[in-house]
Amino acid sequence: MGISNGSSLVQMCLVKVAKNMDELERKVANLPVSLLKDLLPHLNIYYLDRIETAAASKGISTSVIWAAIWRDLDQTWRWRLKSALPDQDWKQRCLERLFHMVLFTQVRRGGSYLSDLSESSILSMTVKHVRVLSLHTSTRNISRLASGDLRPILSSLEKGVTSLKLLDAKSLFKHGRKHVLFVLHRLLDHGSVIEVVLRRNPDSSFLSWLTSRRRGHQLSVSSTPEASHRSVVGEFDSRCRAELEEPAAKRLALDMEENPEVLCSEFSSSSSPADRCPEGQIHSLDFEVSKCEILTTVSRILPTWLCLHTLHLHSDWLISEQEMSVLVESLRRLFLNPGCSLTDLSISHVSGHTHLISILRACLTLKNLCLEICPPAVRNTWRPQPRFTENRGSNPSLKVLKLEDINLSDYHQEILQFLEHSVLEELCFRDCRLLDKCAVKKDFLLPFVEALKGISSLRTLMLAQNRLATSAIEIAKLFSGCRPSKITRVDLSSNFILPAELLEFAQLLETYRPVQRLTLDLRSNPLDRDPEVKGQALRKLIPYCNILTDDWDSRSTMADHISVM
């Protein structure tokens, strides 16, 4: 009997078994380990899921199969880093992606993992593994979730989804606004969603509808803006004031249209407008703010958002000094309430750095702070610079501080004073021009390193894009002496470090022998100018570091990379 395409008789039998798993499933556990391993790649996702327990009892992991399916679904994935994910993560990631592809886009059916499966059976299986639901442009298919035939799918999403991504909210509402609002209401109020990512917000009324889910245990702080708040808003342009003064009739109409009880009664035969819907809570908001929204909505709702743990504000435009003043005042009023839960704050495109200290003073229980600071538009206008007070050099609860694109070259004493009382776990000074005005760079680096060594909680230090060059050698002294640092991750990327300087850094590290293994990021440094010296440096670092460079990382086979240098 001729067998074409290189197929073996065993392979043909395995394919036949996979095609008839409905009859043979109970007997699969009796297969020898070698045959069971060979069978797994031929199964569709339904049976692969069902025989996982039997395979595990024989010491066989299905993670390699799920990882291969992921590679087929997302061919842009950096495949060599796959080992970083636990076994269950590959399965969950695959099935979550398949759900989105089947419901909202389309999926290729070339692989055996989808053979003999209908769209409804794929959705029914994969929906149980969706934790993050991403909604963007396919309004028609999103509206299907509001229909009767997909109501069981929506009910499953209510139970499992904890994070909701609205990646193009403006497009979502072009057609079928009520359908989309009903789906969002079910997920947010009847479901388990506590994290929301919002991009391209369609209008202020939707943001108000969304952020009504901000109730805490008590609302003891008035939501009425203080006089300073009102004065700043009053100074802003007329377009923003027009949004603030939206006609009452229009707002009332929107409230009626988007009332949760009305939505539920319209789309669900089992409920009526008299039935009271539950009200969810949003604990995390990742929000792309548009012009005026900080003034019109964000600053207004913040003081009463007691259940909010994480707030990330992004913008494509420069957040002005005036808007930051309003925002800081709103944060201050929020943190005055003992019920405040906010611990993680990130703001991008802030104009100047005069509000950094104000935020630290206003948000005393903040643990993570990330600011992307841009130079002020008017460079020739003198402004008083921020100074740390003598009795409060640091926020007592701050665990993570990230500053990007801010000139700290004139603030060495303030930095050292800040670090002296710090309990930071992660510190990032990215593109902060730390040494730009140093005549003798060691004059700052030596006390800086000693101050870092004094922070016993510090585990991550990120100094990318600071033009350290030969001064990077001093960073190795973090691990010297009788009180070495406990840092486990150091980012020295984009610092003009040459191979000879890296070799000297490596020699010091070899002398100090850090107790904890480091992750050392050396990417975007000109290390290829001397491949031989680079190789010597990497060989000395390998016993102590997981190394990231532009060519390779230490999760690859290190010896292979170094041998060719």
Automatic annotation (TrEMBL):
UniProt keyword list: Leucine-rich repeat, Phosphoprotein, Repeat, Ubl conjugation pathway
Transmembrane residue ranges: none
Domain of life the protein comes from: Eukaryota
Keyword Hydrolase applies: no
Coiled-coil ranges from the UniProt annotation: none
Family matches, as SUPFAM superfamilies: RNI-like (SSF52047)
UniProt-recorded name of the protein: Leucine-rich repeat-containing protein 41
Organism: Cyprinus carpio carpio
Record lineage: Eukaryota, Metazoa, Chordata, Craniata, Vertebrata
